[in-house]
Amino acid sequence: MKGYKALQYENGILRSKILLKNGRDIFEVGIPKQKVETKEDIAFSENGYSFCGTIEEVADCMNILAPLKGRSPVGVDERLFLIDTLDSCVIGSSKHFKAEQIVIEKEITQDEIIQYYLDHPELKPNIREDLWNEFCNDKIQPYVYVKEEKEIEDLIIKNCLRYGQDDLCAQISNDSYMEICEKCIGWQWRGDTRSNMKDYLYLIIRSKLYNGIELNCIEEYHKLEGYENERKSLRLISEYLKKQAIKLYDF
Questions:
Q1: Strand-pair category, 90-93 with 78-84
Q2: pTM higher than 0.85 for the full model?
Q3: Domain ranges of the chain
């Protein structure tokens, strides 16, 4: 079964909206989530993966139509994705399905969302007309899988709330380096590169996994002690890549 799900795009990572006891769940495109139990009376991710049957139903409850000025790093950047339930058990109704397992297949881009509403003029976007016009006129870049270490470093540095501000940012050129941030007066302030360090480590570890390095051999993985959601997601990636490698070898 196919469906649609919105995820929050922050520091190069896709996360659920719901805050669980260990933080927000992490999703990776193409990596099936682990199977979980579904219960009719509980709506959160640990009891099934929530999704909707149509794009407009997602737009009714998630801010996927926000213009650029309302997205990160200032606001929340919510993106729309096509999902597959992998023939797992699904309960609920179109406005709120829950599945035992899903995989994120691909992003439904800004252009695809706009075209969807043009093809269905009977559907009215659930936002003010001026915001809808802004959304249509903005250029929202599609979700990008960041894999090179320098790209990851640049992403985290430039997502600092004080990046580029006079007297608050130590970076003096577009060629930014993390060690410069460590000398910044705002190094320990909320919203700086240090507060985003777990995301930086996650992206570095993910990159190394895709480059064929064993998870337990990655030094940064051991620095994520205490961040169970991040570690669980990385283990899932590692296990999936190993299974894919075995399939290729058997072939």
A1: unpaired
A2: yes
A3: 2-137, 149-250
